[in-house]
Prior knowledge:
The complex is a heterodimer of chains A (about 260) and B (about 160).
Chain A: H1 2-30, H2 36-50, H3 55-77, H4 86-124, H5 127-133, H6 138-176, H7 181-191, H8 194-221, H9 227-257
Chain B: H1 4-28, E1 39-45, E2 57-60, E3 63-74, E4 79-87, E5 98-103, E6 110-115, E7 130-132, E8 134-136, H2 141-154
Parallel strand pairs in B: 1-7, 2-6, 5-8
Antiparallel strand pairs in B: 1-4, 2-3, 3-4, 5-6
Amino acid sequence: MIDAIARLGKAVLDSIAGAGAALLMLLRALIGKPQLRKSFPLLMQQMYSVGVLSLVIIIVSGLFIGMVLGLQGYTILVDFGAEQSLGPMVALSLLRELGPVVTALLFAGRAGSALTAEIGLMKATEQLSSLEMMAVDPLRRIISPRFWAGFYSMPILAIIFSAVGIYGGYLVGVRWLGVDEGAFWSVMQSQVEWHQDILNGIIKSIVFAFVVTWIALHKGYNCVPTSVGISRATTSTVVTASLAVLGLDFILTALMFG
Amino acid sequence: MESRTTQLAVGLFVIIGVLALLFLGLQAANTSAVSSGDTYRIYAKFDNIGGLKERSPVKVGGVVVGRVTRITLDGEYYEPLVEMTISATYDEFSETSSVSILTSGLLGEQYLGLNPGFIDDTVEMLKDGDYIYDTKSALVLEDLIGQFLFSQGSD
Lengths: 258, 155
């Protein structure tokens, strides 16, 4: 009994210490004199590996998710003779929910796990310690550009995802199933609001970008520097980031559209 | 310059992102929102607004000329007061105009139908902050059924 309470206490203390370590890491990585000249090429390099290389999976899955939405929405809406509402249905579900959320989940799997594994291996092979020996702050040199790259890339990826998804819905709905093209776009335009839908979706994906990148970097930086530790940290990144995204999505949706 | 291709790829990535945002903004959302550009406000009191909501469209003959911007209860008797914002492009509505709450389709959203009134030398045009007095409230299904039953009973 006493042991169980002690274990609970240890778990709570550990999680608080972990959150504190993550926050400290982020603060120390981000606060400080910006060195644009030195950090810009690093940022570019990370934008490439985090953002550009995720582009293919984002475009392909966006296209297919839009096409599935078009197909499923059509079969339901046609029963009510309301297939003209296919446009807003596809656009709103992509812009408000699927765009930010699915992008964040894919990003956690594609880029987040890679970040964790990379930093974890750097730690295991003592590269981070070597940097410190050379008086280079690994937080500024390694963590900070990766954080900003993820932070900038994911909203862009989410926007591309939504746009491609809407095009996929258009391909299936209009080109294949024969929904009237004018009605598809005009009903969409009358229902989708710039501020309410597009901007809120972008705000969502900015929040997700922050959380997912942060979790990935923290798990990598604080992993146990063994092969088992790195594998655990990578798994934990994907699981924690996905859960955080889904939970936050509920809260953000309740705040924005509730 | 070994990072030249990297820079190029990132630049393209950002450009694709901006293009996608433009696509969403121009093709998917309504850019011709009446809230942009010059507008003026008109008020109307109703007995019952039914399912009218803020942001419901104000239409003249089916053409959207504005939006409902605020719905409040007003005055001693708590009458619903609807504030609508009309695009300044359409500023020639006379004070004899009337508004009614209509439904688009059988089950559709409710909107405000604005009927332009006649114009002669004695009537003035509606200006910012004016009231339209000739209003027709929303049809409430329960009231209609009640009236129908009442008229059946009296036969």
